[in-house]
Amino acid sequence: MDNKTAAVKMRNITKTFGPVVANDKVWLDIYRGEILALLGENGSGKTTLMNMLSGIYFPDEGEITIDGKEVVIRSPKDAFDLGIGMIHQHFKLVDVLTAAENIVLGLEGKLDLKAAAEKIRSICDAYGFEVDPNQKIYDMSVSQKQTVEIVKVLYRGADILILDEPTAVLTPQETDKLFAVLRNMRDDGKAIVIITHKMHEVEELSDRVAILRHGQFIGDMPTKKTNAQEMTNMMVGHAVTLNIDRPEPKDARPRIEVKNLTVRSIDGILKLDGVSFTANSGEILGIAGISGCGQKELLESIAGLQPVESGSIEYIEDDGRREQLIGKDPLSIAQMGVALSFVPEDRLGMGLVANMDLADNMMLRSYRRGKSFFTDRKSPKQLAEDVVRRLDVNTPGISTPVRRLSGGNVQKVLVGREISSAPTVLLTAYAVRGLDIHSSYTIYDLINKQKAAGVAVLFVGEDLDVLLELSDRILVLCGGKVSGIVPGRGAKKRDVGMMMTKLGGDRQHA
Ligand SMILES: Nc1ncnc2c1ncn2[C@@H]1O[C@H](COP(=O)(O)OP(=O)(O)O)[C@@H](O)[C@H]1O
Ligand SMILES: [Mg+2]
Fold it and tell me: How many angstroms separate the alpha carbon of residue 177 from the centre of ligand 1?
């Protein structure tokens, strides 16, 4: 690192928001021809630091140099002029415009869309992107929108690229594609900074890591010289264990019985095709499948949020009485003890009211009879305080409006809220999407405690390694059909992966 001039040097950068010190005298160097992973727990100041490079925030103190020259970045335009481009967590594209129109939007000079389309194609060819310049944004997948954002900053000549949790919204296949492009850009001499919480991505992609904790710079090192355990310890500030417990289920009894469930989307596409299985109390049933295989429809059918074409979903009470859930409204199902926590790609759209504070958001949830993991029937205020403490939610207090919290913290509130609602059935999907590694393990631990308390857990996650470690049984979906149900203990990643992509034949029961 020493004989290369840093593309960017940040020195003594401090940024406060009222009482919050988001960045505290941070030093950071960024080099060309290198991919730097910027690491830290949720709320450690990563986005704030990068926003000062991209002209969104202005530092209270400190200096920034680009290629050895001190600069002042007062606006996104200043950043662009210095060759800095940032791809934000929340995209800033205009839905009704095409890719090309979005890419040239706001540029000075005469608008020549044909020339623009030409230039876009050449950028795509150079790095291996696939973008149709004439496609409207509203017709695009999340991954396509992200590609447009990246092409947009390259179009403006960026050679220092910052990507803020780009893979949080991508499937593993899309992530592979993105990484191939980023490597091309690195080899082309660009400086790349990526923020991600996924350790295997850090290890696979980055050349160097830099770690922030509570707004302070903790250290940096070549990725090859460190490992997930050391990086996590540095992020958290003390040693943490990265194991997921899997206690044997106790008194597992059938709680939800699904038979021949068939669901179609509004446009008539078959989403679930004759799905049958039983979910037991005191057990974690993992649901594996590639995105769009029907996991969402399955959880939403149980929660009463999805019209069902045929089949049966029975809820089995402790005394053996059975109740048909199909036809019941979501509120009645929730009151029976079925909690749904589905973390969407856009985390603010997940059932919290942004202008309300934490305590009021807790109250939105209808509390049912019975005991809560967070102890029974506390006031929403106490409940909010419990969630904040247990999940380490980074907030000035429980009366802070939810919209002021960072995405990861909002999510902890949501997941905490569902867990604390004392369910008998916990339907959870993408619970740790976008959460830092320490928070993720806290969530796994909470889910395990729910299991120990006798809850029937249905766990949908995108990380197959976690699914294999956490689940007692794994139900594999492929194209809306059950391709098998296998015991979690001893299941092989490769086998489950194969069942996710093609039907496994007669392995219907385990
Ligand atoms: N616009 C803002 N107003 C008030 N507080 C903010 C703002 N942006 C960030 N923060 C606070 O600054 C801290 C760092 O946030 P952030 O940079 O988003 O962390 P990270 O990206 O590492 O998750 C957090 O405590 C967050 O709540
Ligand atoms: Mg952030």
Answer: 30
Pocket lining: 407 vs ligand 1, CB cutoff 6 Å: no
Query: Cα–Cα–Cα angle for 140, 146, 148, nearest 5°?
Result: 75
Residue ranges of the domains in the chain?
A: 8-236, 254-501
Fold annotation for 254-501: Rossmann fold (3.40.50)
Nearest CA to ligand 1 atom 17: 45
The three-class DSSP label of residue 371 is coil
Question: What is the CA(7)–ligand 1 centre distance, in A?
Answer: 25
Under CATH, what is the fold of the domain 8-236?
Rossmann fold (3.40.50)
- Compute CA distances 503 → 452, 483, 496, whole Å: 32, 5, 11
Closest to 284 (Cα-Cα) out of 244, 323, 328: 244
Which ligand has its closest atom nearest to the C-alpha of 38?
1
State pTM to two decimals: 0.77
pLDDT digits (tens, 9 = 90+) for 120-161: 999 999 988 889 999 999 898 888 999 999 999 999 999 999
Digit-coded pLDDT (tens) for 200-256: 899 999 999 999 999 999 999 999 999 999 999 999 898 887 788 898 998 899 999
- 26 CA to centre of ligand 2 in angstroms: 16
Atom in ligand 1 nearest the alpha carbon of residue 51: 17
